[in-house]
Write a structure and sequence with these properties.
- The longest helix is centred in the C-terminal third of the chain and has 32 residues, at 223-254.
- The chain is globular and about 55 Å long.
- The chain has a 7-stranded mixed β-sheet with strand order 3-2-1-4-6-5-7, with helices on both faces.
- It is 43% helix and 15% strand.
- The termini are far apart.
- By secondary structure, it is α/β, with parallel strands linked by helices.
- Helix 5 (141-158) packs parallel to helix 8.
- The structure holds guanosine-5'-diphosphate and magnesium ion (MG).
- The site of guanosine-5'-diphosphate has 19 residues, from strand 1, strand 2 and helix 3.
């Protein structure tokens, strides 16, 4: 990253960071990106932050896309992928601004995509393998219930298991960028992404990674909001899965 951020691509890879009031954790995330992935361009999508998020991003040499007011994570995510698509990047990655996603793990995901192993690689806390043990994360009982429900829903909707459907740690090749850049309609853009990628026939790999706890501030998903979101999303996925299995083949046959 140069100290004079440029909007025209310097590298073939963009890593974007959606951020809402993350002035405390963002500098360390951007330092880690510069050290771990020196050959990528970095974009911070500052979604109407009321703290110094945009300033610390610029000070670290990142490009900054600032919305005047908060539009919500789903718009931030779509905007990041749209930026990558419109600027012609070959690859794009996404990490959280809270320090949760180790850059070394994102680098592995980008390598997998670059090597042609998949179109999109998603970092997963709950998938096992590659030296990552099965139950390395022990979520609270409420979260366990939530992830179990989501898992059921994902299996129904995708027709295959997907263990960490709310992970935002992504690496994607150019072909997937327009799909990921479409506006999201639900409060769970990551889940929606996975359904869209499947519909588009793109190859998605769930890759076991280590993640950290967020460095400071608060998660956007907590308390009653989290419960409501999980129940709604799981129910939608189950319905979508049933529709796909029983209704849509018939609709296709009679067309
Ligand atoms: N653009 C944008 N980013 C947001 C918004 N809310 C949260 N974020 C960022 O999205 C990322 C994920 O949010 P986080 O609270 O860590 O969610 P969790 O990881 O699911 O607990 C972080 O980088 C946040 O700063 C929002 O309204 N707009
Ligand atoms: Mg987080």
């Amino acid at each position: 990253m140069s100290s004079e951020p440029s909007e025209s691509p310097q590298h073939d890879t963009l890593v974007f960071v959606p951020a809402l009031n993350e002035e405390e954790s963002l500098p360390a995330v951007l330092d880690e990106l510069r050290a771990g992935l020196p050959d990528v361009d970095v974009l911070v999508v500052d979604d109407g932050s009321t703290d110094a998020t945009a300033d610390v991003a610029r000070a670290a040499g990142a490009a900054v896309l600032s919305f005047g007011e908060n539009r919500g994570l789903r718009e931030g995510v779509a905007a990041g992928y749209r930026w990558a698509h419109e600027h012609g990047y070959a690859l794009a990655g996404r990490v959280d601004a809270d320090g949760q996603h180790p850059v070394a793990e994102l680098a592995r995901l980008l390598e997998l995509v670059r090597a042609g192993e998949c179109d999109v690689a998603v970092g997963s806390r709950f998938a096992a393998g590659d030296g990552h043990a099965e139950y390395r994360y022990e979520p609270s009982p409420a979260r366990q219930l939530g992830t179990a429900l989501l898992r059921r829903g994902m299996r129904a909707a995708l027709g295959r298991p997907f263990r960490d459907a709310t992970s935002g740690m992504y690496a994607a090749r150019a072909a997937a960028l327009p799909v990921l850049a479409e506006p999201y309609e639900s409060g769970a853009p990551e889940v929606e992404s996975l359904l869209r990628l499947r519909e588009a026939g793109l190859r998605v790999l769930e890759v076991p990674v280590q993640m950290r706890q967020r460095a400071s501030g608060e998660s956007r998903l907590r308390g009653r909001r989290a419960v409501e979101l999980v129940v709604t999303v799981a129910a939608t996925l189950l319905l979508y899965g049933l529709w796909r299995r029983f209704v849509s083949p018939r609709a296709r046959r009679t067309r």
